UniProtKB/TrEMBL annotation:
It comes from Flavobacterium luteum. This is Class I SAM-dependent methyltransferase. One of its GO terms (molecular function) is methyltransferase activity. Pfam families: PG_1098_Fer, Thump_like. Residues 278-320 form the PG-1098 ferredoxin-like domain. One of its GO terms (biological process) is methylation. Residues 321-391 form the THUMP-like domain. Keywords: Methyltransferase, Transferase. It comes from the Bacteria.
């Protein structure tokens, strides 16, 4: 790594130019011949991306950044903080350390953390940054994580792995066996060094597919930030054969909305109803979990249809998702659509409905936006309906 980037005048140049167009900067003459111009521009790009995602790094002085891709692939501080709540003990080894954001937060819950990174330059960057962040209990090792585990030759309280996909071939199903490291093949090896393994995967991984490849799964955590699923966490415990906990968390500015249930345990049948006074739409983490029947039974609210995944009640409740007051329910027909929507504004959502949002807008000349929220769905009588709602703000 070229530590010349840490010179004060170069660091000031990076900070001053954060909001400037990179394409414009690229045409300028390099004011620092001792540093590769492309490398310097990459520092500006990466630091700008860190502003919202990694505020601790962004606000600290003399931090070095990796490539743009490495910043995009790293955990955000919000998800890393949540992850750290799942671990404890004396020791943790991260087999796929990357930029080290997860380890920074693990180090606040675990006495000693080992950061493994096969890329030598990235390992040097991370070690430097931990020094600047005044972190004393993370130890950086460069090399193959399997070799590092063998060399350490000790038991850890936790092993953490964030396997990367080998390729992004279109149409290819995302399976853990297609990632590096190949966790399914190496799981027995990992259990020789820890009773607890935490695996991070992208939200694209299907839960049933993950369960088909892994064993001893104790819990699956589905983490969303501002209603966008960011990652799945697979908590494995050696020899565990019990029921699997599904825990969802939607991290927002003022709160974390959680919802959990056990997979395939005492499933209660949902209740159904025609639309009542309020409409409830689960957040994206719950939608990913597939726990739709459990939502109905836990919150005592009715589903509109087995496959609609929208809920209704005459009672307003605290709910992990969006809440609406239903102003009107109309049949999906030409007469009613022309009367209610033609050349009007509306926010449109479809659930269990044969037409796309784009087609609906085009067909009925509905403009986007406004204060009306309209759900095109199917009710318990299999009738196509439109729910015209106003959104209820949750403090």
């Amino acid at each position: 790594m070229n530590f010349t980037l840490l010179h004060i005048e170069i660091q000031e140049f990076i900070t001053v130019n954060l909001e400037k167009s990179i394409s414009t900067l690229a045409l300028q003459k390099n004011p620092f011949p001792e540093v590769n111009w492309i490398t310097l521009l990459e520092q500006i790009i990466a630091k700008k991306k860190a502003k919202q995602k990694l505020p601790t790094w962004f606000q600290s002085k003399f931090i070095l950044y990796p490539s743009k891709i490495a910043i995009e692939q790293t955990s955000s501080e919000k998800t890393a903080l949540y992850k750290s709540s799942l671990v404890s003990g004396d020791s943790l080894i991260d087999l796929t350390g990357g930029f080290g954001v997860d380890d920074y937060y693990f180090s606040k819950k675990v006495q000693s953390v080992i950061h493994c990174e096969i890329n030598m330059e990235l390992s040097e960057i991370v070690a430097h940054n931990f020094e600047k962040l005044n972190v004393k209990n993370i130890y950086c090792y460069e090399g193959n994580s399997q070799d590092i585990l063998l060399k350490q030759n000790k038991e850890f309280d936790w092993i953490y792995i964030d396997p990367s996909r080998r390729n992004d071939e279109k149409g290819k199903v995302f399976m853990l066996k297609d990632c590096l490291p190949n966790v399914p093949d190496l799981l027995d090896f990992y259990f020789e060094y820890s009773n607890n393994v935490l695996i991070k995967t992208a939200p694209i991984l299907d839960i049933s597919a993950g369960l088909s490849e892994l064993k001893n799964v104790k819990a699956i955590h589905i983490i969303a930030v501002d209603n966008e699923v960011k990652e799945l966490l697979w908590e494995l415990s050696k020899d565990y054969q019990g029921e699997i906990l599904i825990q969802t968390a939607n991290i927002e500015k003022s709160r974390i909305s959680k919802f959990d249930f056990y997979l395939n345990v005492n499933k209660k049948l949902p209740t159904f109803s025609l639309p009542k006074k309020y409409l409830f739409e689960p957040n994206s983490a719950i939608m990913k979990s597939g726990g739709f029947d459990e939502v109905s039974s836990k919150y005592k609210i009715d589903k509109l249809h087995q496959h609609s995944h929208l809920y209704t009640s005459d009672k307003l409740i605290d709910f992990p998702g969006r809440i609406f007051e239903i102003e009107n329910t109309i049949p999906y027909s030409k007469v009613m659509m022309k009367k209610e929507f033609e050349n009007q504004n509306a926010n449109i959502t479809t659930r269990n409905f044969p037409e796309s949002v784009e087609n609906i807008r085009k067909k009925w000349k509905i403009k986007d936006g406004g204060n009306r929220y309209c759900f095109f769905t199917t009710d318990i009588n299999n009738a196509k309906i439109v729910l015209i709602c106003t959104k209820i703000k949750v403090s």
